[in-house]
TrEMBL record:
Matches recorded under PANTHER family: RIBOSE-5-PHOSPHATE ISOMERASE 2-RELATED (PTHR43748:SF2), RIBOSE-5-PHOSPHATE ISOMERASE 3, CHLOROPLASTIC-RELATED (PTHR43748)
Catalytic activity, reaction form: aldehydo-D-ribose 5-phosphate = D-ribulose 5-phosphate
Lineage, highest ranks first: Eukaryota, Viridiplantae, Streptophyta, Embryophyta, Tracheophyta
One Gene Ontology MF term: ribose-5-phosphate isomerase activity
Keyword Isomerase: yes
Example GO BP: pentose-phosphate shunt, non-oxidative branch
Key word Metal-binding present: no
CDD domains linked to this entry: RPI_A
Keywords, comma-separated and alphabetical: Isomerase
Protein's UniProt name: ribose-5-phosphate isomerase
UniProt xrefs under Pfam families: Rib_5-P_isom_A
Length: 239
């Protein structure tokens, strides 16, 4: 099975948790995309009725619109029944790294407002603990003096050999790479650690104390269910 086929299997399994009348958090990324497609299909077939979607990105908003999924937002629905979203890393405690697709702020807001948050991954996302993979730990920062904020983030994790890099996007304006801009008009500084960052809650709090930081990609104690699709089948783990 290809990675995308595994993602689709996990996504479709998660959609089995969706009941008519639910207000749903709609995730962002290639795995969540399959879940949103499936919800649209079941609505079209009349197997699901009266669901409302709250998207976690402009991209998911567009996808849901194209599928005819009725949409709303957190202002109108401050409490949601269920969110379904992917993740970049999942550890044994169901802590997540998210945001390598750049949507972490709206994802964290929506998923933090849900009674249940179902994470859907293929087995390649499983890690022994988050922050140890050496891959990007995204931090959304305001564009104002982002270098100042990036330096303070780097200094926070000096003893983990932290490297802080501004995320850029492919478009070039007179050959100069441009910063990636989030749906909220902010930048993303990706942190790369050479060593384990230790207590995640302490790391999270220290990042959020920096005034120029908006949010980071550690989703601690938020997931209520993790669905993992692997070569040997699908496993469902509950908190
Ligand atoms: O950016 C995000 O948070 C995405 O949900 C990401 O974590 C998972 O994206 P994928 O399903 O394309 O791997």
């Amino acid at each position: 099975l290809t990675q995308d086929e595994l993602k689709k299997i996990a996504a479709y399994k998660a959609v089995e948790f969706v009941e008519s009348g639910m207000v749903l958090g709609l995730g962002t990324g290639s795995t969540a995309c399959h879940a949103v497609d499936r919800i649209g299909e079941l609505l079209r077939q009349g197997k699901l009725k009266n669901v409302i979607g709250v998207p976690t990105s402009k991209k998911t908003h567009e996808q849901a619109l194209s599928l005819g999924i009725p949409l709303s937002d957190l202002d109108s629905h401050p409490v949601l029944d269920l969110a379904i979203d992917g993740a970049d890393e999942v550890d044994t405690e169901m802590n997540l790294v998210k945001g390598r697709g750049g949507s972490l702020l709206r994802e964290k807001m929506v998923e933090g407002a849900c009674k249940k948050f179902v994470v859907i991954v293929d087995e390649s996302k499983l890690v022994p603990y988050i922050g140890g993979s050496g891959l990007a730990m995204p931090v959304e920062v305001v564009p104002f003096c982002w270098k100042f904020t990036a330096k303070r983030l780097k200094d926070l994790f000096e003893d983990c050999g932290c490297v802080a890099k501004l995320r850029t996007c492919c478009e070039k304006i007179n050959k100069k790479e441009q910063p990636f801009v989030t749906d909220n008009g902010n930048y993303i500084v990706d942190l790369y650690f050479k060593k384990d960052i230790g207590d995640l809650k302490i790391a999270s709090d220290s990042i959020l104390r920096l005034a120029g930081v908006v949010e980071h990609g550690m989703f601690l104690d938020m997931a209520t269910t993790v669905i993992v699709a692997g070569e040997l089948g699908v496993t469902i783990k509950n908190k």
